[in-house]
């Protein structure tokens, strides 16, 4: 049997799963992002620090994301639109899940590609029609996977990656969101 | 005796196992309908009969109110006196109380809420639509009979186990039994915690031996919605992940049927059953609603078919984990001399079925007898 290597350290994940089963407090993470208005509808959001395993943590380097709107929105298009970041999050989360589950199941991946489409009726955000919601009406992800596995096993990889996906859960289930203005 | 079957379940309930499978030590079904499913009343008779024939010293009408460890054994307090004993076998089952999620507290008072303990038959519910929450055996059975009573029914579906009633001409539980799936031991199961938490399969025992999966419910007019995630502004919010719980269940069912086919081929038994078959994938509704206004009057009642949990409030021995389950290793509870029987995957996958008790009991009692002998 050849060794399957998708570059995922599954052993570390399985060890973490075991360790955290008895230490739920260490499993509490806080993810953070800080945004700054630039001009118009352009903003930059910076991500660097987070909290987890009982301590402050940091990424190896800071990441900065530009968000803006395209020219058809009469904006300058200095970056992708905020709702497109949701697609980025969903696609990358599911892809990471596919790789992890494949590693755990001993399936060698050769390529994993996906396209994500979100159907969006912008009459909601423009206030044209109060019956139209602001967010996506439908999101569709299509995977193309080349791997040493049967079509059923590949289907199962994708299903399991949804089952364990943070972003899939955040998009399909409601989450309490609190937005406050800090004291000046 | 057989109190749960007598008093705590709905009127139409039948066993999920066929009659021929409902064996107890020294007793096999010898009636005219081996492929049928016993009604709750017939199960009560079966247990009464077994108690009489086995001459077990049963004390009926006696509630155990406390079991505590004392020097050299246990002290049991009952509604009819005290008992001192060296060992205790807990066989009170895994389904003593309905498990209802906290979101039930956010439901407006205008909607009546029932658990399977309160539900008896469709006629006893207020007129109007019903939301059934949970799509395991209980949920699909109640959704189906409520729909047949002419009501509008919504079924909130999370992860579930799909099974056809019959496969290749045999009861699907014949396959579970014959192919050895149910013989898998607790110490051979990959993820035992998960195996012990597995929801009951979408099965119903009817004279027609019909399959009661989500496609059957959709065809009968039941509306499927996702897992109930929250109540906000008086509305129930359902998960948009319905399609994936369908995929997970379809894939799992196909894998199981594949293991049956392999077994039949390897054992040379293909000739005695029908050819392999596969079932249509669970049909995804054109659009699933994510929100239901609970105060609109569209539904008048909610039936929580969200599972059951054991009740160990009487057990004054620290052997219950944070999730309310007994800590045990194959029936030997984490307190010397204390044993359990009749819990999910206690020693093998068949542990919670009526015919699953025999082998488990033999092994657990061997352990218990060994302990008594060693202590002299």
From TrEMBL, chain A:
It comes from the Bacteria. The keyword Oxidoreductase applies. Keywords: Oxidoreductase, Peroxidase. Its EC number is 1.11.1.-. The keyword Oxidoreductase applies. Signal peptide: none annotated. SUPFAM superfamilies: OsmC-like (SSF82784). GO terms for molecular function: peroxidase activity. This is OsmC family protein.
